[in-house]
């Protein structure tokens, strides 16, 4: 590496290093499918552990404060935690749907147009079910409907 250039660090998702494609490799072969299955299962397990921690935290920390301000603060904290867990619950369902697509050998292809989503996009968002072009178009349509 030439002096003065920095090597960019690549983040690992769920502790799994990014997949390194080999020249001429078939898209979404067994090795690639196994790689994404490992990522998705690790991610799902992390989310489930977080749900368990929240449940334990809420049971351990639940107190009947006599002061209404303290009680309100605790209720707000619990409300925020529950909202976050609800988003994670929805994400777990999406991860399980994606794992099912891997089992059915339908993973990695756009639900809208059928083309390859691409390894790099899947590394960034393993639950992606649309190619970047279809997702961009869907977001534009969504903005137009909302505006």
Characterise this structure.
The chain folds into 2 domains: 28-107, Four Helix Bundle (Hemerythrin (Met), subunit A) (Up-down Bundle), CATH 1.20.120; 109-147, no CATH class. It is built from 4 helices and no strands. Helix 1 runs antiparallel to helix 2. The protein is mainly α. Residues 44-105 form a coiled coil. A zinc finger (dksA C4-type) spans 110-134. Interacts directly with the RNA polymerase.
Question: How would you describe this structure in keywords?
Answer:
disordered N terminus; 4 helices; 0% strand; Four Helix Bundle (Hemerythrin (Met), subunit A); 147 residues; elongated; 2 domains; mainly alpha
Largest sheet: none
The fraction of residues assigned to DSSP E strands is under 5%
**Any guess at the CATH architecture of the largest domain?**
Up-down Bundle
Order of helices and strands: HHHH
Averaging pLDDT over every residue, what do you get? 87
Intertermini distance: 49 Å
Number of domains: 2
Per CATH, the superfamily of the largest domain is DksA, coiled-coil domain
Give the radius of gyration.
21 Å
Net shape:
elongated
CATH level 1 name of the largest domain: Mainly Alpha
Helix content percent band: 55-70%
- Count of alpha and pi helical runs: 4
GO molecular function: zinc ion binding
Domain DnaK suppressor protein DksA N-terminal: 32-102
Zinc finger (dksA C4-type): 110-134
Subunit structure: Interacts directly with the RNA polymerase.
